[in-house]
Design goal:
With 147 residues, this protein is an alpha+beta fold. It is built from three helices and seven strands, in the order βααββββββα. The N and C termini lie far apart (42 Å).
């Protein structure tokens, strides 16, 4: 593999059922409440999707400096186990994201996000920071309220 193309892998264990976590990634009304790549200056994102293989999604993050549009196509959906989609933004085109959900117990789920096809190490690092902020927001703004 060439430099800058290593996959970004983020693993977390969430204190919630697998179905709750899966729904947070598939329902726009929930996604808009946490899918924001900053912990501070939080603002709900605008999310639209057609949650089916071949369906499109669009996320507009309303950052203080500008709106940022992210978009792609769902390539795999295995309900409550896996979601895969392409990911495009102003700095990356047609990268791939795979989300895996593994039930550890009734209220604990291991979550793995694998993001691949980065054009550079810098963009990979930026996405690592962004995904971790999003997952912090998910845990603190959605899952805590459902717990």
């Amino acid at each position: 593999m060439a430099a800058g193309t290593d996959d970004l892998v983020v693993r977390r264990v969430f204190n919630c059922p697998k179905r709750t976590l899966f729904d947070a990634w598939s329902q726009p009304s929930i996604m808009s409440r946490w899918l924001f790549a900053r912990r501070e200056d939080f603002c709900e994102s605008t999310v639209e999707n057609s949650f089916a293989v071949g369906g499109n999604y669009s996320i507009i993050m309303h950052l203080p400096s500008a709106d940022v549009r992210l978009f792609g196509v769902y390539t795999e959906i295995n309900r409550y186990n896996r979601i895969a989609f392409t990911w495009s933004s102003p700095v990356i085109t047609n990268s791939r994201v795979v989300l895996d959900f593994r039930e550890l117990s009734a209220n604990r789920t291991e979550f793995t996000l694998t993001h691949s096809l980065f054009p550079s190490d810098d963009i990979r690092a930026e996405h690592g920071e962004g995904w971790n902020a999003c997952l912090d927001n998910l845990e603190n703004r959605v899952l805590v309220l459902n717990g």
